[in-house]
Amino acid sequence: GAAPAGHDEVEFSSPPSAADELLDADHDDDAPLRFRRIDNIIGPASPLGFVPRALVAEELNAVSCDEPASFAEAERSPSWRKAMVEEMESIEDNKTWALVDLPPGRRAIGLKWVFKVKRDEHGAVSKHKARLVVKGYAQRHGIDYDEVFAPVARLDSVRLLIALAAHEGWEVHHMDVKSAFLNGDLEEEVYVEQPVGFVVVGKEHKVLKLRKALYGLHQAPRAWNAKLDDTLLSFGFRRSPSEHAIYLRQHDGEQLVIGVYVDDLVITGTNNGNIKRFKEQMAAAFKMSDLGLLHYYLGIEVKQGARGISLSQGAYAGKILEKSSMTGCNPAYVPMESRLKLSKLSSEPSVNATMYRSIVGSLRYLVNTRPDLAFAVGYVSRFLEDPREDHLAAVKRILRYVAGTQGWGLWFSRREKEKPHLTGFSDSDFAGDVDASKSTTGVMFFLSGSPITWQSMKQKVVAKSSCEAEYIAAANAASQALWLARVLSEMQGTAMRTPRLRVDNKSAIALIKNPVLHGQSKHIRVKYHFVREAAEEGLINVEFIRSEDQLSDILTKALGKTKFHELRKKIGLININGEHKA
């Protein structure tokens, strides 16, 4: 099933998380961008230019033809009229604005209605949502807004939270703050025009002075986050020093952990009674939707059971296949041919770059529950700037593999009789990149056997030997290990066992454990010697592992069918739906 030549774009958002840290795009100097759902803020463009902003739809759903493009179109529908009235009532109940004359020298910013159909994990319409959005692009920095940053939980952190809950047998709950941004208090003086369809008769010349934030304001995410932060602190929580979107409360040996992603709260802890009381506190402070046990979060399907918790993105994978015209294609057993070598200097004809970036951007988000795709997707991400037919053929091979494994995902086991422990695997190929002779780092960490973080990334420097490449990979892994250990200790409320890092290169291990710089290592950048310091101080235990048992091998190169399937099973991927074709 080849994509037709005229198919320009796949209508999906790219990762709203730290997915860009999981795999390799050839943008070494670019910091990964993070953004929020379109119904929360009309914000910056998608990361790395994968998807035009107009195509970003709420909760990763495809843009629906049932969503009106204008107020005039929406007012003809009873469902959309009701949604607009509900939005106005919410704004007015919250005392968001006051009707005033526009002061001399000031200007009023325009408002726009945005309409979105909200869908459940099965793709069915669950709600019509109308948002009154400020045309934030008209704001002037230093006049209409100042600071704009607001932290959101990395999906690494959310997976860690869910894996810990599965390990301990805790329930994971989900709450959503209704019209969250309307709760944020504004420090700046901002005026907006009256909304179309709701202009006060006889006072058409007046404007609205905002007391609180509206969607679309540059400062709205920060204002809401500050409000939520103050509220949670008043409830006795403390914010994690290592992950500012994780909140923790410990009392009489009971632990309660909250993960925040804008207006979504993921809640878990040792005592269900504490979870219930927290929900009551939140309902008293804000208008909340109690969604019960977590089953759908940012496009990720969550299934909780007595034996553990699974995470998958089967519905999202199906939409990628549909929008790339690959539904019903012949499935592939592996995502990439084992001896495939691609180059930026390819002489093949060019392909539609927007289409290529859109498909790859969608696949990058799929990697959040599919570490088996990380290397292949990272590899094709190196050619975003000028994709050619051989690059697109590799992408289609990945899609064929996805088609055969659509129902696969992660499994987190219940092991409450064991003390949680972190084990990491770091690996590297040597000079596998044909254009720059750089090596590829593969790092993966497990919480008591459950996969929580993984990374497939082209190294930023050229390694002179396989020993050096493995040393650089271990340095990246050491940094990840210490961060995970800190966050996990905070979530548990107790100290963690020293993380173990498994490396399959004895020369690299010797280099790590030798505190004396010598000719073999003196040229290596200082930042990579962090792993040596961490090992010397006992912050990590570096262990040798045989190459055949190196789980991160799946993140550094394309493997043959037998080895790939063996590692896929070992890293914790399972067929959630019980049937597969690859």
TrEMBL record:
Pfam families: RVT_2 (PF07727). PANTHER family: GAG-POL POLYPROTEIN, GAG-POL-RELATED RETROTRANSPOSON. Residues 1-24 are annotated as: Disordered. InterPro entries: DNA/RNA_pol_sf, RVT_2. The lineage of its organism: Eukaryota, Viridiplantae, Streptophyta, Embryophyta, Tracheophyta. Residues 94-337 form the Reverse transcriptase Ty1/copia-type domain. Residues 1-10 have a biased composition (Basic and acidic residues). This is Retrovirus-related Pol polyprotein from transposon TNT 1-94. It comes from Anthurium amnicola.
